[in-house]
Amino acid sequence: MLVNCVAYQSGVRLEDIRPQDISDYVQRPDCFVWVAVRDPLPAELDALQEEFSLHELAVEDARHGHQRPKIEEYGKSLFVVLPIMEMNGSELQLGELMVFAGENYILSIRQHAEHGFTDVRRRAEAEPELLRHGSAYVLYALMDTVVDRYFPVVDALDDEIVAIEKNVFADVPSRATIEAMYALKQKLLAVKHAAGPLLEATGKLYGGRVPQICAGLQDYFRDVNDHLLRLNQSIDNLRDTVTTVTSVNLALITLQESEVTKRLAAYAALVAVPTMVAGLYGMNFKNMPELSWPYGYPLALLIMLVIDAYLFYRFRKAKWL
Amino acid sequence: MLVNCVAYQSGVRLEDIRPQDISDYVQRPDCFVWVAVRDPLPAELDALQEEFSLHELAVEDARHGHQRPKIEEYGKSLFVVLPIMEMNGSELQLGELMVFAGENYILSIRQHAEHGFTDVRRRAEAEPELLRHGSAYVLYALMDTVVDRYFPVVDALDDEIVAIEKNVFADVPSRATIEAMYALKQKLLAVKHAAGPLLEATGKLYGGRVPQICAGLQDYFRDVNDHLLRLNQSIDNLRDTVTTVTSVNLALITLQESEVTKRLAAYAALVAVPTMVAGLYGMNFKNMPELSWPYGYPLALLIMLVIDAYLFYRFRKAKWL
Amino acid sequence: MLVNCVAYQSGVRLEDIRPQDISDYVQRPDCFVWVAVRDPLPAELDALQEEFSLHELAVEDARHGHQRPKIEEYGKSLFVVLPIMEMNGSELQLGELMVFAGENYILSIRQHAEHGFTDVRRRAEAEPELLRHGSAYVLYALMDTVVDRYFPVVDALDDEIVAIEKNVFADVPSRATIEAMYALKQKLLAVKHAAGPLLEATGKLYGGRVPQICAGLQDYFRDVNDHLLRLNQSIDNLRDTVTTVTSVNLALITLQESEVTKRLAAYAALVAVPTMVAGLYGMNFKNMPELSWPYGYPLALLIMLVIDAYLFYRFRKAKWL
Amino acid sequence: MLVNCVAYQSGVRLEDIRPQDISDYVQRPDCFVWVAVRDPLPAELDALQEEFSLHELAVEDARHGHQRPKIEEYGKSLFVVLPIMEMNGSELQLGELMVFAGENYILSIRQHAEHGFTDVRRRAEAEPELLRHGSAYVLYALMDTVVDRYFPVVDALDDEIVAIEKNVFADVPSRATIEAMYALKQKLLAVKHAAGPLLEATGKLYGGRVPQICAGLQDYFRDVNDHLLRLNQSIDNLRDTVTTVTSVNLALITLQESEVTKRLAAYAALVAVPTMVAGLYGMNFKNMPELSWPYGYPLALLIMLVIDAYLFYRFRKAKWL
Amino acid sequence: MLVNCVAYQSGVRLEDIRPQDISDYVQRPDCFVWVAVRDPLPAELDALQEEFSLHELAVEDARHGHQRPKIEEYGKSLFVVLPIMEMNGSELQLGELMVFAGENYILSIRQHAEHGFTDVRRRAEAEPELLRHGSAYVLYALMDTVVDRYFPVVDALDDEIVAIEKNVFADVPSRATIEAMYALKQKLLAVKHAAGPLLEATGKLYGGRVPQICAGLQDYFRDVNDHLLRLNQSIDNLRDTVTTVTSVNLALITLQESEVTKRLAAYAALVAVPTMVAGLYGMNFKNMPELSWPYGYPLALLIMLVIDAYLFYRFRKAKWL
Hints:
The structure is a homopentamer.
Chain A: E1 2-9, E2 12-16, H1 22-27, E3 31-38, H2 42-52, H3 56-64, E4 70-74, E5 77-88, E6 91-102, E7 105-111, H4 118-126, H5 128-131, H6 135-148, H7 150-170, H8 175-202, H9 218-281, H10 289-292, H11 296-317
Parallel strand pairs in A: 3-7
Antiparallel strand pairs in A: 1-2, 1-3, 4-5, 5-6, 6-7
C-alpha cells in the first residue's frame, strides 16, 4: 500500500507525484524522491523495482521479509533493513523497515508494524536546511526514529524484570515466576538479535570507508550508532540481571526446600514422641505399676505435653519452626 | 556414479559429452563443462582427476569425504566443500557436496545425500544471460541451493523446541523430555558445525581480495553469505532457547520435588495425628474416665475427624494440597 | 548552576569572567577558558552552546544525561562523558561528568554527583608549568580525578564480598546472604558498565592516531588508561569471586540439606524403634510369657534404651548426629 | 639413542653417515641430512647441537622436554614441537616430536612415544620427486603423520562418550558414570591443549609471510592446518557433548531422586494407613460395638485391604509406583 | 634499602659505586650501571629518580606499588612491573619487581618478596659475552628468573588440586573440600591475573615494532614469552580442572543425598512393617482366633522376621542397602 510519494528540490517539498512518474524525477539531478509504502503487494514491489532500478537480490530480500538487520551496498545505493520493535501489551511484536537509498531517491517499506513514520517526514520538511542533504539525511532520520523507538521497549522489559525480582524475593517460589522469567528471556533474545547486528551495521557508516551517499553526515550516523551502543549495553545489563535472578531463584527454591524439610521434621517429632509414649503404656505387661496409679493417665498426658513443649522451644530457637 | 556431463558455450547448452572428452572441451577458451557425479567410486575419481588436472590434496579430501566446510584455492581453481543437511523423519542426516570450480569447468560431487541438484541445472539453463558468467555462476547457484535447503532443517528443529517447551511447562518433568532435549542439542551442534565454518568460508568470496573466478559475482556471493548469517543467527537463537529451557526444566524439577515433599508431608500428617490419638486411648491405664463414657468412642473418632479437617483446611490454604 | 568561569593565560589564572563574555575569550589565541557547571537548566545549556559553538548532537546528549561513557570527536573538539560513582552508605550512586574540550576552552558539566571538582582546579592552578598545556591538561586532570575516585568504590565492594564470604562459610545458609550477594552483583554490574567502556574510550587517547588536542600529553592519558586497566582487573576479580561464592553457597545449601536429612533420620530412628518394641508388647496374644515376668516391663524399657544407645553411638560415629 | 642418520642428494638416498660427519654434509649445497633420534641423552644432544649449530634456547627447550606445541624461527631454521598422543588402553599418553629444520638438514627428536616414524622415511624415499623439495618436505611429512595419528585418539574418546551416554540414559545414575565423565574430560583437556596451539602455529606456514624454507610447499602445510581444523572441531564437539551429558546426568539424578521420593511415600502410605486403622481398634473404649461383632476382625482386615488396594490403584495411575 | 650498586664496562664488572655517583656513570657511553634496591623508602626513591632522571608517572607507580604487570615505554627507557609469586606454606604471597631500564642503566626495585635476585647478578657476571649486550640483557635475565620462579608455584597448586580430587572421589562430601576448592580458586585467580597481563606485555618485546633497547635480544624475549604461554596454559588447565571438580563434587553430593534417602527409606520400612503387624494384633476384637493359638505370639514374630528378611534381601539386591 502506497503511503506517500513526494518529490523534493533543495530540501523543499515540490509536489506529490504518481508512482509511474518516479523514474522521471529520479533522472533529474537536483531532485530527490521520497516514497513510503507499507506491506506492499508483490505487484507493487515489481513496479517500484522498475521505477528505481533496484537490484534483484535486494528486492528478493524485501519480498521474503524477516531479514536480519543489515546495511548492504549495491553500487552507489544502499539497502538497509531495520527491525521495528513494538510492545503489544506484554507481547513483543517484531516488524521491519526496509529502506532503499540512492543518490536521489529514498524508498521505505514498512512491514508488520503498527506505528508509521509520517512524523519523520513532517519534522524533516520543517527543517529544509537539513533536508537539503538529500536522501542520506532521510535515511538518518528514519534510522534515528527506529532506534529511538527501541528505548521504550527496553524500558518495558526493565519493568518486567523489576516485577519478577520483587516476586522472587517476596513470595514463595512458584511456577508463575519461572514462566515469567522464561518469557522475558525470550523477549530479550529477540531484542538482542535485532539491536546487535544493527549496531555492527551502523558502525560502517562513519569512521573509515563509508558509503558515498553517507559521507557528509558521519557525525549523525555516529550518533545513531552511539544510541545503539547504549541500547545494547542496557540489553546486556538486563540479560545479566535475568541470569542472576534465575540463579537466585534456584538458590531460594533449594533453600526453601531445606527449610520446609526442617519444619516438617519438627512437626513430625511433635507427633511421634507422644505416639511412642502412648505405645509404651499400651503394652500389656502384667506388672506395670504406673497403670494402677490414680493419676497415671493425666501424668502420662502431662509427660507428653512437657516433652512436646520442650521440643517446640528447641525447634523455635533453632528457627526450624 | 556419473549424473550429468554437459558442455556449455556462451551460457547455452552445447551437448552432452563423454567423460573421456572432458579435457578437450576444457581446453577450448569459449566453453565450459559442468559435470555432476554422486557417490563416485575411486576409479571414477581418478579418471576425473586426470581429465580436469585436479590437485592431489583436494582429490584426497574428496576421496575420504567427511570434510569440514571450506573453500580452498589451488592456483586459479577452487575446491569447495558444502555440507548437505536433510531431515529423515526426526533424524538429521549429513552429506556433502564437493565442488571443483576452474575457469571453464565445474565438477560437483554429491555424497550421502538423497536430494539431487538437477533443478539447479534446469533453472540455470533457463537463464542463459546469467549462465554466461560461467563456472562462478554455477558455483553460486549450487551454494545458494545448498544453503536454502538448510532453512527447512532449522525450521524442523524450531518445531521440536516448541514441542519440548510445551511439554516442560504443561506436564510433570519426565525422562522423555530430557532425552528429547539432549537429542535436539546434538542436532543443533551438528547444524552449527556445518553452517558456522561455511559462513566464515563464504565471507572470503566478496569484499577484499577474492578468488579470481568469483570476482564478477560478488553481490551474489554476499547474498549467500547473508543467508548464512541469518541461518547462524537462528541456530544461535535455538541454542540459547534450548539452554534456557534446560535450566527452566531443572528449576521446575526442583520446584516440583519441593511441592511433592509438602503434599506428602500433609498427607502424612493426616494419618499420623489419628494414629497418635488412637495410641492415647490404647493405653492401659486403669483410670481413664473417657474409656467408660458411653459416647467415648464416637467422640474419639470425632476428635480425629475434626483435627484432620482443620489440618486439611490449613494445608489447602497454604497450597500444600 | 554555574560553579566557576575563569580565563587563563599561559597557565596562569587571568580573572573570573561573566558567562556572556566567554565567546570573546575563546577567540583570543593565547587564552583558554575553564567553565564548570552542575546540573544545568536547559536555558543555561543553550547559552553555553552558543558561547562555545558546541555541536548540536553533543549538547542533546548532555541535555538527556545518562549517557554511556565515551569520548567523541566533533571536528577539533572533544565531547567526553565520564561516569561518576559514589558510595552513599551501601548504595551505589551514579552520576556523570560531561566535558567539552576545545583548543582553548574546557567546559565541565557535573550531574547527579555530590562531590565536586574544585580541588582539581586548585591543584592545577598551583602547577602553572603543567597548566600551560591548556585544555588537554585540564581534561587529563579531570579524568584522572574521576578515575581515582573509582578505587574507594571498588574497595567498598571488596569489603562487602569479604563480609559475605565470612557469612557463607560461618553461618547456616540464609536468605539474607543470597540477597546481599544479589545486591552486590548488581552493583558490580553497574561499576563494570561504567569502567569498561571508559577503558576502551581512553585507549584512543594515546598510541596510534590521537585527537589533536591530546597529542602532547599521551604519557598522561596512558597513565589514566593504565589505572582503568587495573580497576577493570579488580572488578573482574570481584565478579569472579562473587560467582565462585555463589556456587560455593549453593553447594553448602545442598550439603547442609543432606546433613539435615541424615540428622532427622537418625532422630526418627531413635523414636521409631521403641515404638516398634512397645507395639510388640501391646499385642493381645493370650500366650506371651514375657508379659507375666515380674521384671518384664523394666526389661522391655531396658531393651529399648540399649537399642537406642547403640543406634546413637553408631550415628555419632558416622557423624550423622 | 640415534635411530637413523642419512644423507640425501636430489631426493635420492646417498648413504648412511656417521653423526660426527654431519657438519661436513650440511656444508654441501646440493645435499641434505635427515637425522632421527629418540629420547637422547644430554651428551648426544650436545653433539648434535654442535654438528648442526643449533640455537642455544631451542636446544634448552629440547633438553627440558614437555614444551607446548610451537613453531619457532631461529634465523633461517625452524624449531618445531609437535605433541604425540597415543592411547595406551584407556590411558592417554603424551609424548613429543621435536624437529629442527634447516635449509639442508632435518633433525627429529622423539620423546616419550612408542610409535616411531620409520614409515615416513620409507614413504618419502619412495617418492624422490617430492623428496627433492628437501627438508621442508620431510617436515611436512612428519607433521602430516603426527596429525593423522591424532584421529584414532579422538575416535577412541568419541567411543568413550558414546558408552557413557548409554550408561546415563539406560542405568540408574552412579558414581562410576561421574568418574568416567571426569576422566574423559581430563583427556579431552589434554588433547585440546595439544591440538589447539598446534593449529595456531601451523597457520603461520601458509598464506601471508611464511618461513623461507616452507615457501614452496604452502598447499601442503595448508592441508595439515586443515586436518587440524577438522580435528579441533571434533574435539570441541566432544567437549560440548560431554558438557551436555554432564548436565543431563545431573538432571536425571535430580529427577530420579524426585521419583524415588514419590515411590517411597507411596509405600509408606500403604503401611501407615493399616497401622492407623489397627490403632483405632486397639483403643480400649468400653463401648466399641465393632469389637463384639462376630466378623469384626476380618472386616477390619478387609477395610485395610480395600483402602490399600484403592491407594495402590491411585499411585499406579499417578505413576508413583 | 639499597642492595647493590655496580658499574659495568663491556660486560665486565667495573666497581661498586656510591648512589650519588650514578648520574656520572650513566653519562659515560661505554658504561652501564645496575642498581638493585628492595622496599625503598620514599626518600630513596626520590634520590634514584633524580640520579636516573626517571619519569614522574612511572616513579609514582613505583611509590604506590601493587601495580598490574606491564611494560611501559617512556621515551627510550622502559618501566617494567613484574609480579613475584611465592608460596608461603599453602598461602600465596604476591610481591613485585619493578625495573627501570634505560640505554645504560638498569634499576630493579623488589617489593614484598622474600627471595632476592643476587644469583641473577652472579650468573650474569659469569658470562661477560652476554652481559656485553648491556641493560637489555639484564632485563631479560631478571624477567626470565621471575617467570621461572612461577613454575614451582603452579606446581604447588597442581598438587593441591590432586589432593582435592582424591578427597572428592574417596570421601563423603564435606565442607572442608568445598572450602579447599574455594581457596584454590582464589589462588588461581591471583596467579592468572599476574601471568596473563605479563604474557600480553612481553609479546610486545619481539616480532613487530619493539622498544629500541630490546632490539638485539628478540629471540631471548620470545623465549620468556614462550615460557609464559606454557605457564598460562597450565593455569587455564588447572582452572578448567577446578571447575570440573567443583561440578563433580556437586553431582556427588546430590547423588549421595539420593543414596542416603534410599537407605533411610529401607531402614524405615524394616521398622514400619513389624510395627504395622504388631498394631494388627494389638486390636481388641473379641473374636481374633490367632490370639488364642498356643504359638500365635512366636508365629507373629516369625511373620515379622520373614517379611523383614525378604525386604532386606530386596533392598540389598536393588543396592539400596
